Structure formats: C-alpha cells, structure tokens
6-methylsalicylate decarboxylase
Amino acid sequence: MRLAGIIIALAAVSAQADLPYKIDTHHHFVPVSYRAALDAAGGDPVGFPTPPWTPQSSLENMAANNIRKAILSVTAPGVPIVPDIEGGRALAREINEYSAELREAHPDSFGFFASLPSLLDTKGTLSEIEYALDVLKADGVTLFTRYGDGTHSHYLGHASFDPIWSALDSRNAVAFIHPSHQVNASPISPLLLQPLIDYPHETTRAAVDMIASNVTRRFPNVKCILSHAGGTLPYLISRISTSSNEIEVLLAGKTGAEIREDFRTFYFDLALSSDSAVLDMLLTLVPHERIVYGSDVPYARPTLITGFNENLDAYDFGQPALREMVYHGNAEKLLPSTGKA
Ligand SMILES: *[C@@H]1O[C@H](CO)[C@@H](O)[C@H](O)[C@H]1NC(C)=O
C-alpha cells in the first residue's frame, strides 16, 4: 500500500515535470500590517478566516505546484477595511513597500499587484498609482469589484472613478479585479458560503457595469484581469447580448455585438476555475491570449488547489502551444516583472 502510494506520488511529480511551468496571477499574501488592520476591524466582513501566510509558505506552495513566479496581491476587502482616509493611504503604502522588498529578496519568484486605498479616495488612489507603478514598478494594481458601504457604494463603472481609469490607461496598466462581498452580507442561509456563491456574481456585476458605462471602451489601454474565469460572466454574456436584430439596443445604448466585443477585452484567470466545462466555455468565448493561470493561495487550501491543477493538467488543449500560453506565456506578455512583457 505504502509503496503503491509512493509510486503514485512519484508518477504525479514526473507527470508534472513534463508540463509547462506556471505563472500565478492570483496569489494572495497576508502582510503583517494587513493582518493587523483586519484584526482591528473585527476580521473579514463575511466571517472568512484569515489563513496563516509567510513568504516561505508561498514558495513551498509554488514548488509543489510547478509555479515559477507568483504575483502577490491582498484579497478582499483589502485596504478599504481601514475606514479613515489617512489610515487607508498609510496601509496601502506600507503593503506596497513590503511587496517591493519581497520582490527584491526573491526577484525570480515574486512580482506584485499594488494595493490602493479605497477608490472613493480619488486623490490618495491617484498618488498611490503613481508611486506603485512609476517608482516601485509593480506589475499592476489590485482593484475590488465595489467600493463603499452597502447601497452607498459603486461598482467599477461609476463615473467618479474615471480619473483613476484615466491614470491607469495612460500607463497601459494591468488591473487585477478581485471580487469583494455583496452589498448585503447578512447570512440568509449560513449554509451558503458567500465567497463561493456571491463573489463570482460580484465579478459579473462589476464587469457588466464597466461594459455598460463604456469603461472598457474609453480606457482601452488598461488590461483588466477578471478573477475566477470572470465569475459567472461567460455563462451570462449571451443572456445580455442576444437578439435576432443586430442593431437593437440591449443595454445602456449598446447593441449585442458591442457588448460581446467589450466582453472579449477582459483577461480571465483560472483560480478555482479549471473544470473542463469552464475551460471549454472560456476557450470558445474569449481570445486565447487572454486566459491566465491563478491559484488562490492561501485562501484555497492545498487539496483544492491540487484538485483544480489536476483538472487543468488533464484538460486536452488540443495543441501544446495553447497549454504553454495559458500556464505562463500569456501572463509573461502581460506582466513587467517577468521581463518578457
Ligand atoms: C457607450 O458606447 C456606445 C457605443 O459606442 C454608445 O452608443 C453609448 O451611448 C455609450 N454609453 C455610455 C453610457 O457612455
């Protein structure tokens, strides 16, 4: 039994050795300053526990999963957990300085998506974009799907965010768009784990808001990565863009063809989203150079990450070149710290 187990484990490692290495665009870290801010605020609003994390735990996870480089980001709620403006600016700065130090210590292993204050703080956000992208040379910025409290909040298409999109557009920046909790986080059924069900819908809402407000058209140089294969967006895009009359306006002054065109400008990461049905759908709907690997370390526990990686490794991409693109090639074209963008 034990010997059989070892043989299976060795077979798995050697099978992995034949597969391309990965660049992980959805890899979370928990800096000490961020953990302290979360704890001070009573933890994640949806009650999700903050997992242990060290740079070493990331490196070990990467070695186990054939990940050559991870682009670090904090997960939701991110810096907006800090309610006061000055505190939010200070925390974003502290996280970004720490990220740059980590990258300096492990240049081949880590890049980072910069943290920003709440986007409701336009001035603070603009100055952190300038510092993080121009001075620290981050790979991009982390945006959350919605900013503000309850119904006094905005998805990413809101007009007040235009100056921020404009600053990102002028820098050809990458924006990693991560879901946060839905407006009403009351646990109607405690059995429904919100990050599993509602986070994907938040991504869909933010992306459709960006399409409807023409953010994707007006700021075409920003490369936006939607987490988790776009949440539920690929499944729903036909729902909002289909008519027998191609010139009929379906949403915010736009035709179905225009909506689908905007949808295809997003990038999609594969964090917790590599079932063959999901991959079939993505490869059918979006340009193949817009699909990138992601893991969701350390919020997804190792057995989940291994399961999703097994699905990805078992998927028939048809041609080896396409597997290379999805595992690392597409991300390398996108991310400055890979040295190939
Ligand atoms: C978005 O762009 C479309 C097509 O270019 C236009 O018809 C529509 O009015 C615009 N909508 C907004 C909200 O800017």
Q: What stands out?
A: Residues 85-105 form the longest helix (21 residues). The chain has a mean pLDDT of 94. The longest strand covers residues 22-28.
